[in-house]
Input
Amino acid sequence: MLSEPLPPLNPTALKQKTLLVHERLCVAYKCPIAYFHNLDPLSELISALLSHRTKNADSSRAFRELRSRFDDWAAVRDAPTAEVEAAIAACTWPEQKAPRLQQVLRLITEKCDGNLTLDFLDDLEVSEARAWLEELPGVGPKTSAAVLAFSSLRRPALPVDSHHHRVAARLGLIPAKLAVGPAHAVLEAQLPPDWDAQQVYDNHEVLMLHGQKVCFFHNPACSRCVVLDLCPFGQNRMRSAKTKKAHS
Ligand code: SF4
Output
């Protein structure tokens, strides 16, 4: 359905719109969405570091290889770097990721007085836990949120991947040119503060699924989109398609 051009929104109206989008997409994608991982937080961090700019199937293969070739994460930390690199050959840039992985494992061990674990993050506030993680090299807001949200910690932190980011920008939930990194804080601030981990996880998942199944990078399927009436990008697109048709 096409309506008049949508006006820019104030922060309260944006929060209401976020909720409406969430509710509609939750119906479409059948929330609650099942968690896909139940890794401890350190394993989740390693999985996330391997997954940077790598297809899921390839990073999963690299993760499985690491697990099968080494007894534990301490063995990965202390192994010759070439062995770690060989184990993660399935992912992109193994020659950069192997030394980075070992550096991160060494740093965690140092910061935790010899203990190689991230289980203690459960005792911190989400914001503190994210800040702690983001001091590690190569860890930004997406990875810190993923460690807290997707691991067995199940904390309410919102990761934003490229699909989620694209859908949010087209819907006008974030400025069109806001990069993925700073979009995390803006999108998280739009969620009700009392939402539990499952609700925050569902919000990420439904926006991501919508980007994968309807709001494609090229040629989004706006005509069958359940949030078309809330989407300035989609409305403009449909309007110009209609005008083009009228003039052809
Ligand atoms: S209306 Fe189109 S651009 Fe907007 S969210 Fe739906 S598919 Fe994406």
